[in-house]
Amino acid sequence: MPDTAALHTAVNRLAGRLRSLPQRRLQAGAAAQGLELARWLSHRAQRLEFPGREPYEIPDDGVFVVGDQLAVAGHDLAEALRAVPDRAPEVLPEALERLARTAREVG
Length: 107
Description:
The chain is mainly α. The chain has 4 helices and no strands. It is globular.
């Protein structure tokens, strides 16, 4: 069973940060970065859960929901990694690196 605690922590921290940013910062690019990361996390989760199906895309529902979208996508990936633990060594480090990079860029 992969240890996804670090993934949960990083996702929750960044999602909380995105939820607390002012509208101008979200519109200046932070929301777009969060959505891009949420989509990446979601695609990885879906590829683990449904390997033969093309992943669905998280919609752009506006700057105020991107924190929630990121949280859901990150937690979905953690659950998918628990279901397919042999894929964790290739997916988990990249997910953590992308979360850290996006967190630095968002501020």
